[in-house]
Design a protein that fits this description.
Mlu1-box Binding Protein, DNA-binding Domain; 7 helices
């Protein structure tokens, strides 16, 4: 499991970076229904802000941005897992692949946050030396 595997599946919905249940299932090597069953069987681990169901409009927008074949058999609205929800899901799924996948997901979200901070700093910093150092740190992160 690599940064690239995970990074390509992170989408922004409602201003939050999330992973969709179907993509999570693919990363973890399980069926989407298994992910959703784990959530249903452990509702106390997923309070508000950890997971949400996409609206029809959000789903249609997502379907338009991504491959339509990807969602061709989807009959229910997908669930989106925030970073907190992903951490909680990791406490439920137990396997060697689940552990590797969780580590890759955590690393991906960490790198995205780091890059975001570096880009914000880059737009404010005036010193060319500092800008170069920030760009180098960002490049190393990627």
């Amino acid at each position: 499991m690599t940064f690239q595997n995970v990074e390509g599946k992170v989408v922004t919905i409602r201003g939050v970076q999330v992973l969709i249940d179907r993509d999570l299932a693919e990363l973890y090597g399980v069926e989407t229904r298994d992910i959703n069953k784990a959530v249903k069987n452990n509702p106390d681990k997923f309070p508000d802000g950890y997971i949400f169901e996409l609206t029809k409009g959000e789903f249609d927008d997502l379907r338009g941005k991504l491959s339509t074949a990807k969602f061709s058999k989807t009959r229910v609205l997908p669930k989106a897992f925030t970073e907190k929800g992903l951490y909680m899901l990791a406490t439920i799924l137990k396997s060697k692949l689940a552990t590797q996948t969780t580590i890759a997901i955590i690393e991906t979200f960490s790198k995205i946050k780091h890059l975001s901070r570096s880009v914000k700093e880059l737009s404010v910093v005036q010193d060319k030396g500092e800008q170069k150092a920030l760009m180098q740190k960002s490049g190393e992160c990627v």
